[in-house]
Amino acid sequence: MAAVSSVMSLSPATGLTNKTALKRFVVPSYVPSLKRNVDFRVSSMSKKEQPESAAPPKVSTNFGDILAFGGPGPERINGRLAMIGFVTAIGVELANGQDVFAQIQNGGIQWFIVTSALLSAASLIPLFKGVRAESKSNGVFSSDAELWNGRFAMLGLIALAVTEYVKGGALV
């Protein structure tokens, strides 16, 4: 405010008018730039604008889509098998004192094949009918929790096998 009032008090005798004095005293670098480097748009829809009968998107029941690399089948089935395998490996180890490799040598392959076939069939039947785990998830038992538990079980089973191999015997 002081700079503006001093500009206004300049006399016409000095040859400076208010406009030229203002241009001389107000430097553009003092004015903050309001330009932004990022452009973004915000849009929203009110409840009235949304369609009344929004049908859920149709899911593919094609065998190739279900068992594709990014499909709903592989990670979910592998995670379920890993959860069962990890709990079973720890349980047998606590009961009999056998490590994972001894369990596999003493008939574990047959149990693995039977369990894998049953669990895969039980997991694939709803997927072929178009039912997804996301549609049935609620609260604590959500589909995301199942995926994370399966991922941790896969890591746990590998860590258990590597630890027992390095140690040379059962973990517990």
Please give a handful of descriptors for the protein shown.
172 residues, mainly alpha, 7 helices, disordered N terminus
Give an overview of the whole structure:
It is a single chain. By secondary structure, the protein is mostly helical. It has seven helices and no strands. Helix 4 (73-96) packs antiparallel against helix 5 (100-128) and helix 4 (73-96) crosses helix 7 (143-167). The longest helix has 29 residues, at 100-128. The radius of gyration is 34 Å and the shape is elongated.
The helical percent reads 55-70%
* Number of helical segments with 4 or more residues: 7
Q: Major sheet, described briefly?
A: none
Per the principal axes of the C-alpha atoms, what is the gross shape? elongated
- Classification by helices and strands: mainly alpha
Cα(first) to Cα(last) distance is: 79 Å
Over all CA atoms, what is the radius of gyration? 34 Å
Query: What number of domains?
Result: 2
Stretches where pLDDT is under 50 for at least 5 consecutive residues are 1-11
Short account of what is shown:
By secondary structure, the chain is mostly helical.
Topology, pairings included?
Elements: H1 2-8, H2 18-25, H3 63-66, H4 73-96, H5 100-128, H6 133-136, H7 143-167
